[in-house]
Amino acid sequence: MKDVRTRYGRYAVVTGASAGIGAEFAAQLAASGFDLALVARRKDKLEALAEQVREEHGTTTEVIELDLGREGAVTELLRRTAHLDVGLVVASAGIATAGPFLDTPLADESALLDLNLSVPMRLSHEYGRQFRTKGRGGLVLVSSAVAFAAIPYLANYSAAKAYLANFGQALRHELKPAGVDVLVLAPGPTATEGFAGAEGIDFAKLPMPAMSARRVVRAALRALGRKPLVIPGFPNRVNDFLGKHVTPRRIQTAMYGTLVRRALRTKGPSARTAGD
Ligand SMILES: NC(=O)c1ccc[n+]([C@@H]2O[C@H](COP(=O)([O-])OP(=O)(O)OC[C@H]3O[C@@H](n4cnc5c(N)ncnc54)[C@H](OP(=O)(O)O)[C@@H]3O)[C@@H](O)[C@H]2O)c1
Fold it and tell me: Residue ranges of the domains in the chain?
């Protein structure tokens, strides 16, 4: 990893750096010599992380308190990082909605599309152009293992992650000749604050073991520049293989429907009918 900063540039911009996978990216990138621009809404968490990496690695950090779901947020982020030699962007900020689609507020589903889909697309466009001009840079798009299936009760979330997985792999092909690496990270269940406290669903009730964010990020940083897509964890890769090559999509969707419905915190009227 040490040579990655030299290859890409001095600063890594990490969205969703106040918790979970984003915070772990920040920690591992700092350990490998990157300076950081940390982005999220909770400034106190970002400042604590900045202090930690400064003490441990001498990292210089810009703390950027920003609600990326707000109109114009990506433009503001660009303005606030314009003075930095940005070489890597990790788009990890994300939210999930869970439950029967018709019973979740439309505003929540729209906010999910803004943050999980539109923001990474915009970041890729803006920073991607800068990287192309410089002839170097890297983009990491945090998708999910659910991107490769149609998941009832996580319908909008899994569909948005599918967008990101396809978008990122296509972009990798386009940008590779310009010296820009794109990696899609598709983690399975990962033990984070968001995972534990998710509204609507108790992920612990799903029969998939959660990986640590540390292992997920380590796998991503190993794959960066070498692969278009990484699914960390052997069980997740087996699951992915079965879904793509063995289990018919209709049966896979029905299986996920049963499993996820069992893990819902509130089943709601549509869920009751759907499963019966
Ligand atoms: N955990 C899993 O099992 C899992 C599995 C597959 C994929 N993923 C994906 O991995 C990514 C990170 O997930 P995680 O589990 O690490 O989540 P997490 O622990 O809930 O952290 C989410 C991060 O996103 C930030 N965020 C949320 N809304 C934001 C907004 N409007 N503006 C700016 N930042 C915002 C949060 O910061 P603030 O609250 O401070 O703003 C936080 O730093 C997500 O894209 C998620 O979909 C997670």
Answer: 2-275
Q: Please write the tens of the pLDDT for every residue from 194-214.
A: 887 778 888 888 888 899 999
CA distance 164 to 142: 8
pTM more than 0.85: yes
CATH 3.30.420.40 assigned to 2-275: no
Concerning whether 127 is annotated as a catalytic residue, the answer is no
Ligand 1 pocket (Cβ < 6 Å) reads 16-22, 40-42, 45, 67-69, 92-96, 115, 142, 144, 187, 189-190, 192-195
Sheet strands (E) in the chain: 11-15, 35-40, 61-65, 86-91, 137-142, 180-185, 190-191, 211-212, 229-230
Q: Which residue from 83, 29, 97, 30 is spatially nearest to 58, judged by alpha carbons?
A: 30
